[in-house]
Amino acid sequence: MASATDRNADADPHGAAAMLMTLAADRPSGRSPRRQFAVDLTCLLASVAIPFGYWVALALGHRPFSDTVHWIDLALATLFTPLIWWRRRWPVQISVLLSVVSVVSEYASVAQGIALLTVAIHCRPRATAFAATVWAVTGSVYVVVRPTPDLPYWVSLMFIALLTGGIVAWGSFIRARRALIDSLRDRAQRAEDEQQRRVEQARQLERTRIAREMHDVLAHRISLLSLHAGALEFRPDAPPDEIAKAAGVIRSSAHQALQELRDVIGVLREGTGEVERDRPQPTLGDVPGLVTEARRAGATIDLDVRVDDPDAVPAVTGRTAYRVIQEGLTNARKHANGAAVRVTVSGDRSDGLTVEVRNWLPLRIPETTIPGAGTGIVGLGERIGLVGGRLEHGPSTAGDFRLTAWLPWSAPT
């Protein structure tokens, strides 16, 4: 069963990342070189403190001892305790060496404990067990070589066993804690990376949607403007009423294009789809108005809608069908201006909706062809794919261009 933390992480990756980064920050500054140097220096000073203190006392004229055993003890401690500085590089070797030296050197016991703690923190359990065993065995020998008169042998062995186990347990705890913190830090980093990828993906999808919407909306309007402006250019001697009528259509189309552009830019500024959802979207019932507008521009269009109740078509399906017809009419104006266009819409709940736009191919491409980006059909295919439909387009054997889309009646929202 997933824990509450895992469920919260799935629900809110960004919040989980912040929480995990806070936990991972429990060990400030990580293992920075500066902190590592400070720890190494502290361990070195603690290890050499006892022999250094004796050497200071001797330099000041004091005689803390006179027997040979203590002189040997001090010499070995002075020689081997500085090795604790390199304990990170050779942890097991230095721990074993100091354990052997500690058989006769009591003053090296601090360095011996630090070395074993380092092994427990940084080495594998097998190496830790080996170093701990050497510690316990050499400690047992030390008790024999330098016994404590008032303490029974078995009590000394018990103390050595407890001290060994305590150092290993402490080191193992530090090792486990560091592993946990590293795991939390890695998990937090992965959660942040995943959240960043989701944000980038959402941003890219939003840009694609806006670009597709701008093409669908503006290409139709601008093609009408170009068509009417071309008519005025080639008919400068037209009657004043026709010129006024064409200018009115241009003004109306330009106003609608600006309004629709303002709506799309509003979506871009908001960064979400709220504006688009608030703005009324076209449906299958708006197709006659689209065709009428194109006819006013001089296009010859035959519309045949064989759907019992166009208003009953689901909103997503109807909007997609509208965009298919809009793209077909726009392409016809661009590439086959003046050619007759036939628009057919048919279907029902069981068979889905079929939309077809056909126009005769021109014998030659006119010089006034409206330029296009060539991405309208690509974007239309993506839009239809999102609702689970199919798109076919291209010249047919009958000599016309055919744009056909099949849409499921109940498309996913």
TrEMBL record:
Name the EC number(s).
2.7.13.3
SUPFAM superfamilies for this protein: ATPase domain of HSP90 chaperone/DNA topoisomerase II/histidine kinase
**What GO molecular function annotations does the UniProt record carry, in alphabetical order?**
ATP binding; phosphorelay sensor kinase activity; protein dimerization activity
Q: Which residues form a coiled coil?
A: 174-208
- Record domain Signal transduction histidine kinase subgroup 3 dimerisation and phosphoacceptor: where: 206-271
Which residues span the membrane?
37-57, 69-86, 127-145, 151-173
Q: What Pfam families does the database record attribute to this sequence?
A: HisKA_3
Quick check: keyword Transmembrane helix in the entry?
Answer: yes
Q: Which reaction does it catalyse?
A: ATP + protein L-histidine = ADP + protein N-phospho-L-histidine
The keyword Transmembrane appears for this protein: yes
InterPro entries tied to this protein: HATPase_C_sf, Sensor_HK_TwoCompSys, Sig_transdc_His_kin_sub3_dim/P
Matching PANTHER family: NITRATE/NITRITE SENSOR PROTEIN NARX-RELATED, NITRATE_NITRITE SENSOR PROTEIN NARQ
The name on file for this protein is: histidine kinase
**Which source organism does the UniProt entry give?**
Cryptosporangium phraense
